[in-house]
Design goal:
mainly alpha, extended, 61% helix, 3 helices
């Protein structure tokens, strides 16, 4: 029960932090129009899914990211929170590498 409360609190903190960033921040880059920003963001999201959370099951497996019986897999809500944070950080790094700034 105590562990469940900790996971719920972590999820809440992450959602609040993410909400603050998306509500008050915009990725900008000199010469980039909205379509370019959107394309770069989608590219960074796709990259982040694999860099932050490589699949632990064979390609095509319906359990590629959730099969907790495999070494290195993370399951449950703690795993979901950790994956979310890792993906968001990887997206941020990717956008910075592409020359963007996050403005509030």
């Amino acid at each position: 029960m105590n562990r469940l409360l900790i996971h719920a609190a972590l999820a809440g903190i992450v959602l609040v932090a993410q909400g603050c960033q998306s509500a008050g921040g915009t990725w900008t880059k000199a010469g980039a129009d909205p379509a370019m920003v959107s394309t770069d963001m989608e590219e960074c999201r796709k990259t982040a899914l694999f860099r932050a959370n490589p699949p632990v099951a064979p390609a095509g497996s319906p359990n590629a990211r959730t099969d907790v019986s495999r070494p290195g897999a993370v399951g449950g809500s703690a795993g979901s929170n950790e994956r979310f944070v890792n993906e968001q950080e990887e997206i941020r790094r990717c956008m910075l590498r592409k020359g963007y700034e996050l403005r509030h």
